[in-house]
Amino acid sequence: MQNDISQALRAVQGGDFRTAQRLARKGLKADKAHPGWMNIAGIAECGMGRPKAGLPHFQLALKLAPNFHEARRNLAQTLFLLGRAEEAVGHLRQMTRANPQDDVAWALLAQVEMARDDGAAARTAVDRVIALLPGQARGHLLRARLLGQMGEEAEALADLERAAELEPNNIEAQIALSLPLARADRPDAARAAAERAVSLAPGHVPARLALAMRLVEQGETEAAKEQYRAVLEIAPGQAEALEQLAQINSGAENAVLAPQVLSALKNVDDNGPARGQLHFALARIAGQAGDEDGFAKHLTRANAAIARLMPYDAGADTRLSEALMARFEPGAEGDGPGDGVAPVYVLGLPRSGTSLTEAMLGAHPAVRPLGERIAPGRLLGPLIDGGLPFDAGARAAFRQGEAESLPALPEGTRFYTDKMPENYRLTGFLLAARADARVIHLRRDPRDVALSLWQAHLAGSALNYAYDLRGMAHRFNLYARMMAHWHAVFPGRILDLAYEDLVADVEGASRRLAAHLGLDWVPEMARPDQAAGQVLTLSANQLRQPVHARSVGKWRKHAVLLAPFIAGLDPRLWPELG
After folding, report:
1. CA–CA distance from 467 to each of 218, 300, 456, 565, 571 (Å)?
2. What percentage of residues in the chain have a pLDDT greater than 70?
3. Maximum distance among all alpha carbons in the chain?
4. Where, in residue numbers, are the TPR repeats (predicted)?
5. Rounded CA separation 30/149 (Å)
6. Which of 274, 205, 264, 270 is nearest to 237 (CA)?
C-alpha cells in the first residue's frame, strides 16, 4: 500500500495526474476509508482542471482524519479556486494556529485575505511568510503583489527589487519586477529585468511576452516581433502572442500569420480569454485586408467572448456614479496648494486622446509624464467603499499618500501628469484635495471612441463595459452626466479639449495646454511623436507617428456595426451629435 501511495505522489509531482487518479481509484477500491488515497484522488481531479470534483475528496479525507494537515490545506486552496474565500479562510486560520511554522499555509492565507479585500489581515500573513523565509524571494513577491493592489507602488517595487536581490536567478522575480519598473519611469531597468528573465530561461513564454511588451513600449517594434515569433516557436497556438503580433504586423506579415491564428482557434479552450484574443487578432487581419464582413464578425465574437468572462453590471455602475456625484455640490471648495510638484490629471473616456495629450505636455521640460497611475484610485477606494467623509484629515492623507507613491522626479519639475482616463469619476476628490491640481478633459465623438474600444482588448476588468455595445452606451451616458456635474461644482477648473481640435491644430492645442498650466509654450510640445519615450498603453505605436486626423469620423464606415451603441446614447446628453 505504502509503495502505491509513494508512486502516486511521484506521479503528482511529475504532473501525471491521470496515473495518480488511476492509483487512487485502485487504493480506494481496496480501502474506502483511507484518507491518504482520498487526498490523492482530490489532487488528481484538481490537477486535471476539475476542482469541483476534487472538493468532496478533501472533505471526506478530513472527516476520516480531522488532523490531516495536508488535506486541509488542499481543501482551502480548492475552496479559494472555486471563489469560496470565506470558507477557505476559516480552514487556513485553523491551520496557522495549529502549526504557526507552516509558511505554505500563511502564504495561501495571505492570498485569500487579498481576495477578501482585507489588507490588514493579508499584510499580517505575508509578513509572517517573510519572517519564516527570510532569505527567500517568495514572501517579498507576495507582499509586492499586495502592496501593488493597495496602491503602494514604491513599497511594492522595493519588495520586488529585494526579491530579485535575494534570488538573482529567480525568473518569476525578474518578470514581476519588469512592469513596475516601467511604471516607475525606469524603462531601461524594466527592459533589463525582462531580458534577464529570458536569458535565464529562453523557453519561458511569460518571460518573452514581458520582454516583447517592454520593446513595444519603447518603440522597438521589430525587436518585439522577434520575441513574439520566438514565443510561437515554443508554443505555436499561444493566443496572447498571436494577438499582440497581429496588432503590430504589416498587412503582408499578417497574411502569413492568419493560418496560424485560425489553427489555434480550432483548439482553443472556451473557459479563458484565448478565444477572444484570437478573434481580436483575426479582426485586425481582416481589417488590414479590407474584409469588412470578416472585420465585423470577428470583433463581435471577440467582444462576446470577453464579455462572458467579465459581464458589465449597469445598475451597480449607476449607483456608484450617482453616489460619487452626490458627495460634491456646487460651491464646494478645495484645500490650498499642496507641497511640491502639482498633479495634472488628463482624463476622459478611454481612447479619447489622453495619451497624445500627455505626450504633448511631457515634451515640456517642467512636466514629467507618469502615465496611468493607480495610486489615486487605490487611496480613495476604502473611503468610497466605506462611505467615509472626505474631510480635511482625509484630504491631507490623500495628498500624503499620493506624494509618497511618486517616483523620483527630475530637478526643475513643476508638474507631473496622471493620464488615467477613468479618473473622470474621481474628479471631485482630485480637485477638492488641492487647489493647484489641474484637470484636462479630453472630449471626442463618442462614436469614434466606441469604434476604437470595440477593436481593443483592454487589460483588467475596469473597462468591462467596453465589450458590450449597449453597456458601452450606458457608461458613456453616465460619463457625460458626471462631467457636466464636475463643471457645475468646480467652474473654471477643468480645461475641455476636443480631440478633433487637437489633431486639426496641434500647435494651437499645445499652446492652450501650456497656458492652462501657467507655463511658457515650447515648440517641442507641437511634435509629440518626437517626444514620446516609453508608452505603457495601447497608443504606443500611434504616438510615434506624426499627429493625424485619419480616425476622425471613422465610425461612419461602421455605423451598422455600432448601431446598438448609437441607439443607446441619450440625445439630451449628446446634443452635438444631432
Report:
1. 28, 9, 9, 11, 22
2. 96
3. 85
4. 137-170
5. 48
6. 264
Whole-number pLDDT of residue 14: 85
Average confidence (pLDDT) over 1-26: 82
Residue type, 143: R
Q: What is the distance between the alpha carbons of residues 279 and 276, in angstroms, rounded to a whole number?
A: 5
Q: What is the DSSP string of 515-563?
A: HHHT----GGGG-HHHH-----STTHHHHTS----TTTTGGGGGTTTTH
At residue 463, φ and ψ (nearest 5 deg) are -105, 35
CA distance 276 to 452: 16
Say what the pLDDT of residue 193 is. 96
Task: Find the mean pLDDT for residues 416-430.
Answer: 95
Burial 503-541 (b: 16+ CB within 10 A, else e): beebeebbebbbebbebeeeeebbbbbebbebbbbbbbe
Residue 252 CB burial class (10 angstroms; 0-12, 13-18, ≥19): exposed
The three grid cell numbers given for residue 35, joined into one nine-digit string? 484518507
Q: How confident is the model at residue 406 (pLDDT cuts 50, 70, 90)?
A: confident
Q: Say if CB 168 and CB 136 are below 8 A apart.
A: no
- 3-class DSSP state for residue 417? strand
- C-alpha cell recorded at residue 220: 522597438
Residue whose cell numbers read 451616458: 477
Is residue 482 scored above 90 in pLDDT? yes
Which set of grid coordinates corresponds to residue 426? 474621481
